[in-house]
Design goal:
With 434 residues, the chain is an all-alpha fold. The protein is built from 16 helices and no strands.
């Protein structure tokens, strides 16, 4: 059966799956993290270790991608992965009151929960990207990547803002009910959104003509210079990107005495900034062909570094009214850098040896996951160490933000070396008839 390239409606449907994935994950990495640190008064390194564990599980992403390349029926992996993610999220929420009543019981449940979350994200997310890379027409790939990630950020932002509005006054029962509604709704919407797309596109993967073991296939991809260099860039830049993920809400709660609802809403506003940054690059770079993807990556990294320096000054001066605008600005520059890198990723996935799109996406997904786990844990651990050593929360968190800013500067330099300085080869293609 010949491949029928995805229509824009199908691309938006796949983006809805990514939206659901982001809606669940933001509760785990932001809201539950803050509850452990501030309400339960646990060290930030504990939720940092749990989130790092869920990212560490995602080192299996290349294997999920390889299965997508060779075993067929990616829809099965997408739905199954979302189911694991939903169950893991419910368990993680249930572990919050358990941690308060019996620490070790709650910790055991949390470890199992975050393991399921990592497996769910790896299976669903990697298979979804592999499906997009194989079923999307080449000229539409940059736009498809932008649309999909914009919808994910939209889901993160809307979920965080909405949950922030209904979470106060906080109680464990209210939190559990909210998480149940979000996870159940996300799973149902995923099933409806993905159903039938792969079959109609005619891209169900058949066994490779040249069978090989997974590790042999991975070595083959790693031997490609472009894929290897881009993997190194992804690791470094994502380490910087995720360093503040686990500490921004605790920082706002400890330094500026913001409530759980206020910090969750702030997290949503930050992701709203990410959304705006992605829109700008998606329209300007892919649609209007203004500037190379490398230029947008570098601009996003430099802007992120400058904004982190500004947040450090805001904390030391106690300028609470400037915090949320600064966090939104940080999200904006993060979005610029991220969507440009994603556009390059989608283009590179289809290059090199054929029938390896899933394995390449898995390799880069694994690099991102390892960097996210390492960056989040490093940021949380450094915050704990600095708080104890300095005895001043504002200065301690400011130190972490300064280190993160330095990593963004290094990432900008690396991008100049490993990314090509060409303009995107594809237009947005949203006009009729394309």
């Amino acid at each position: 059966m010949p491949i029928q390239p995805l229509s824009w409606v199908s691309i938006f449907r796949l983006g809805t799956v990514q939206l659901c994935l982001g809606a669940i994950v933001v509760l785990m990495t932001s809201t539950l993290n803050r509850l452990m640190v501030v309400e339960l008064m646990l060290p930030a390194v504990l939720p940092g270790a749990l989130v790092a564990f869920h990212y560490g599980i995602q080192i299996t992403r290349p294997n999920w991608g390889y299965r997508s390349d060779t075993c067929g029926n990616r829809t099965r992996w997408i739905i199954g992965g979302m189911g694991m993610l939903a169950v893991g999220a419910l368990m993680a929420a249930f572990a919050i009151p358990l941690l308060e009543a019996s620490f070790w019981t709650g910790l055991g449940v949390s470890v199992v929960a975050y393991g399921l979350i990592g497996m769910g994200v790896g299976a669903s997310g990697t298979s979804l990207l592999a499906l997009m890379a194989t079923a999307t027409a080449e000229r539409r790939r940059p736009a498809a990547a932008s649309i999909t990630w914009l919808m994910m950020i939209f889901g993160i932002a809307v979920t965080a803002i909405t949950v922030g509005q209904v979470l106060d006054p906080y109680s464990h029962e209210r939190m559990l009910a909210i998480v149940a509604v979000v996870t159940g709704g996300a799973f149902l919407v995923t099933c409806l959104a993905i159903w039938g797309i792969e079959r109609r596109a005619g891209v169900q993967a058949a066994p490779l003509a040249e069978p090989m073991r997974f590790l042999d296939g991975l070595r083959e991809i790693w031997a490609e210079r472009a894929a290897r260099n881009f993997t190194l860039f992804v690791f470094l830049s994502m380490t910087a990107y995720f360093m503040q993920e686990l500490i921004m809400e605790p920082f706002a709660g400890l330094v500026f005495q913001m409530t759980p609802g206020q910090t969750t809403s702030m997290s949503g506003a930050q992701n709203g900034g990410v959304f705006l940054g992605m829109v700008l690059v998606g329209v300007a770079a892919t649609g209007l062909r203004l500037g190379a993807l490398r230029s947008w990556v570098v601009a996003g990294c430099l802007g992120s570094a400058a904004t982190l320096a500004g947040i450090t000054l805001i904390a030391s001066a106690g300028l609470k009214p400037l915090l949320v605008p600064a966090v939104i600005t940080l999200g904006f520059f993060n979005g610029m850098f991220a969507v440009a890198a994603i556009g390059a990723m989608m283009q590179l996935a289809g290059q090199g040896r054929a029938r390896r799109e899933g394995t390449r996406m898995g390799l880069w997904g694994a690099a991102q996951a390892i960097a996210a786990g390492f960056g989040g844990l490093f940021g949380a651990a450094l915050a704990d160490i600095m708080r104890k050593a300095l005895g001043n929360d504002a200065t301690a968190f400011g130190t972490v933000f300064s280190v993160e800013a330095a990593l963004f500067l290094v990432s900008a330099l690396v991008a100049l070396r490993v990314m090509e300085g060409r303009q995107p080869s594809a237009r947005m293609g949203l006009v009729a008839g394309e």
